[in-house]
Design brief:
alpha/beta, Aconitase, domain 4
Length: 163
């Protein structure tokens, strides 16, 4: 699986309350969640995010509550993958469960700037900064995780009988 997109960059400790504020948790509509994604952290996110964009972030991305709404809002907004220095454990699992690709790679986050064009090759664990020409190595996902992401989430993978 390869993803190519424009980078939107955030810092450390981006918690689920700023990814999708609690006042919007009364809906499970993905489009509605996407329309409020990051609004308490970055008022411009919704107006500038485009299908295929990539979020990079610092340490502890997705900390806070265990709500599945956060990775759903990110994925529904059009973000193809999140690259962070580290993820909160529950966010990491929720992201995989809903089919949002995520990668931990601190050196890539440090070397990638807002607005760079980046390609992520999950099969081979290579992150390429097209803008600068730099390449970063990360551990590729195990095959079963790749199947979950390719199928759009755990439930879809089970329904498609890919295991």
């Amino acid at each position: 699986m390869k993803y190519t997109g424009n980078v939107i960059k955030y810092g450390d400790n981006v918690d689920t309350d700023v990814i999708i504020p609690a006042r919007y948790l009364n809906t499970s509509d993905h489009k509605e969640l996407a329309s409020h994604c990051m609004e308490d952290l970055d008022k411009t996110f919704v107006s500038r995010v485009k299908h295929g964009d990539i979020i990079t972030a610092g340490l502890n991305f997705g900390c806070g509550s265990s709500r599945e709404h956060a990775p759903i809002a990110i994925k529904a907004s059009g973000v193809s993958i999140v690259i962070a220095k580290s993820f909160a454990r529950i966010f990491y699992r929720n992201a995989i469960n809903i089919g949002l690709a995520i990668v931990e790679c601190p050196v890539a986050v440090d070397g990638i700037s807002e607005g760079d064009i980046v390609e992520v090759d999950l099969d081979n664990g290579i992150i390429s900064n097209i803008t600068t020409g730099d390449k970063y190595k990360t551990a590729p996902f195990p095959e079963f995780v790749q199947k979950i992401i390719k199928n759009g989430g755990l439930m879809q993978a089970i329904e498609n009988d890919v295991f």
